[in-house]
Amino acid sequence: MSIYTRYGDQGFTRLVGGGQAKKNAPRVCTYGSIDTLTSQIGFAISQVAKGDPLRQELIQVQQWVFDCGGDFATPDEKRPYKIESSNTEWLEQKIDDYWAAIPELRQFILPGGTPAAASLHLCRCLTREAERNAVDLMEQEESINLAALTFLNRLSDYFFALARWVNHQAGEAEILYENSRKIFSRKNDQ
Predict the structure, then answer these.
(1) N or C: which end of the chain has fewer CB within 10 A?
(2) What is the homologous superfamily of the domain 13-189 according to CATH?
């Protein structure tokens, strides 16, 4: 069996369920950006020591992100969607756990720190890009799994909290953005 089909030579790709779309269609851009994110998560995993429980956690997240991409590649629910609200609830619990274990954040920070944390910050950015693409797809009045959109929104928060936690665990100081106003505070605190 050959890896190439020549189907895409004219700028088209196949969707789940047998349909086709141009390679620059909003649906394809959405699941393409999720594919990029999936690869970046793989890189982040490579930055975590074997035997570290975080490695297995990130592999689970990577599995769900792959599922999420599949959901966005599926128009009109031609097969059952895989991402459900329980995936987002799991993320929320992890966010709460990591956020409780790190110092309070009162200013914006610059992404970076350890290689693992810097990689997780990049995952956060790629998640936001995928989310923007998903919103664009939705605005085109295309059918989407709304649970997958919510999952993407929470996933970026997960990567942010996790990147901060990884730096904190390593004793790596965060770099504060010099021109930052106070964040996560009441308006009258500013």
Answers:
(1) N
(2) Cobalamin adenosyltransferase-like (1.20.1200.10)
Question: Burial, 125: exposed, middle or buried (Cβ in 10 Å; 0-12, 13-18, 19+)?
Answer: middle
Rg (CA), the chain: 18
Q: What is the pLDDT of residues 74-87, one digit of tens each?
A: 888 888 999 999 99
With 0.85 as the threshold, say if the pTM is over it. yes
Domain ranges in the chain? 13-189
DSSP H/E element including 110? strand 109-110
Helix-helix angle 115-139:146-169, to 10 degrees: 160
Helix (H, G, I), strand (E, B) or coil at 65: helix
Q: Which residues pair with 109 in a beta bridge?
A: 176
Tokens 């992404």 label which residue? Answer: 111
Cβ density class 60-74: b for 16+ within 10 Å, e for less: ebbebbbbbbbbbbb
CA atoms within 13 A on the CB side of 125: 10
